[in-house]
Design a protein that fits this description.
It is found in: Cell envelope. This protein is α+β, with helices and mostly antiparallel strands and 396 residues long. It is built from three helices and 19 strands. Among the domains are: 51-61 and 318-378, Beta Barrel (conserved putative lor/sdh protein from methanococcus maripaludis s2 fold); 109-198, Helix Hairpins (Orthogonal Bundle). The longest helix is centred in the first third of the chain and has 43 residues, at 110-152.
Length: 396
């Protein structure tokens, strides 16, 4: 029977132990390789995030409040009639340019001519009576003087003297009454003459006939209301009435510069300034709106009644200043504004001081210079920033 030496048994046991350890080394090596691959694919070589950026540039900025407006002539007159009667003639047509005191329309004057003729006849009658009364007073004065003289000489009676004096006073009173009647009739005549004059309607101002509401041959009744025949407007100056929301009205003051365009001429700008802010609002669908009035010259008559305009109230303006997209600015507590600036070492948060701002751009007063690149967002589908591993897709 063969027996191994002690050294042989020792060598055999060592070989068996080595055979048992090599799977552990393989497993450790595999784990290390897997961890390195995971780090390589998720961290070390993750693609840099793709940012949406914009450069700070010099430019012009203005802040505005917008509103929808309607137009009306600044000065216009509704020409009516002060007397009743049949409208015989209307001389101008719609669109005609008239001057002050031009004849516009005529009402049948027959009734008023008759009244004037009657007043004049009554006046002539009263004046004739006055002349007769004057002659009678002269005679009564002579009789009174004679009666008083006879009484002094004791050749006449007291009764005769008193009767003569009373007759003279009666004649004087009659003359006073006739003078009062003459004054009254004269006043009636003046009124009827005025009414006769009102049967011809004249232009009260220079302007354009923009509408005619009455028709020739119709009967106008001035006793119930003042009938409107036509409207004259001065189209050389138009008033734009803009309806401004209550949230924007505190920003607008008298004299605020304004520009606007119309639906028919969107590329042309008219300019003016705020003339009046009406204190009483108009409520439309629970929205509080205030009327703001702007006067604008209209020499070429391109602006017409009831045109619609989009009005821009200029609240502020700056030219040649650094501008940054408004969407790049982050507003923090205490009114602090920050932006993310893209540098060679990566994005950096920077505090800035802003000025005028609108929906697209904002003025930068401090913190940025022209040429700086600011981050406005992350591109769609861009990779997550470095250092943040992607989550594996969810299965099932």
């Amino acid at each position: 029977m063969l027996q191994k030496s002690e050294s042989g048994w020792t060598a055999s046991a060592s070989k068996r132990r080595r055979r048992r350890r090599w799977p552990v080394f393989v497993l450790l090596a595999a784990l290390a390789a897997g961890g390195g691959y995971y780090y390589y694919t998720t961290t070390a070589h993750a693609p840099a995030p793709q940012y949406q950026t914009a450069q700070v540039e010099l430019g012009d900025i203005e802040t505005t409040v917008t509103a929808i407006a309607k137009m009306q002539p600044k000065n216009y007159v509704d020409v009516g009639t002060q007397v009743s009667g049949q409208l015989r003639t209307i001389h101008p047509d719609v669109g005609a340019v008239v001057k002050k005191d031009d004849l516009l329309a005529e009402i049948d004057p027959t009734v008023y001519q008759t009244r004037v003729a009657g007043d004049r006849a009554s006046l002539d009658n009263l004046r004739a009576q006055l002349a007769q009364a004057d002659a009678q007073l002269t005679l009564d004065k002579l009789r009174n003087e004679r009666a008083q003289d006879l009484l002094v000489r004791q050749s006449g009676s007291r009764d005769a003297a008193d009767a003569a004096e009373a007759t003279m006073r009666i004649s004087t009173a009659k003359i006073d009454a006739l003078k009062a009647q003459i004054a009254q009739t004269q006043a009636t005549l003046d009124g009827d003459l005025a009414n006769l004059g009102y049967t011809k309607i004249y232009a009260p101002m220079d302007g354009t006939v923009v509408s005619i509401t009455a028709r020739e041959g119709s009967t106008l009744n001035a006793n119930q209301s003042a009938p409107i025949v036509l409207r004259i407007a001065d189209l050389q100056t138009m008033t734009v009435t803009a309806q401004v929301a209550e949230g924007d009205i505190p920003k607008i003051t008298l004299g605020t510069p304004v520009y606007f365009s119309t639906l028919g001429l969107p590329d042309r700008r008219w300019r003016g300034e705020v003339r009046q802010i009406e204190p009483t609002p108009t409520i439309v669908n629970d929205v509080v709106l205030y009327n703001v009035l702007i006067d604008v010259p209209n020499e070429d008559l391109m602006l017409m009644t009831d045109m619609t305009a989009q009005v821009f109230f200029r609240l502020g303006e700056a030219k040649g200043v650094p501008l940054v997209p408004t969407q790049a600015i982050r507003r923090g507590r205490g009114g602090i504004s920050t932006v993310r600036v893209l540098t060679a070492t990566g994005p950096q948060e920077r505090t800035i001081k802003t000025g005028l701002s609108n929906r697209t751009v904002t003025q930068v007063i401090e913190g940025l210079a022209p040429g700086d690149t600011v981050i406005t967002g992350v591109a769609a589908g861009a990779a997550a920033p470095a250092g943040r591993p992607r989550m594996p897709p969810r299965l099932g």
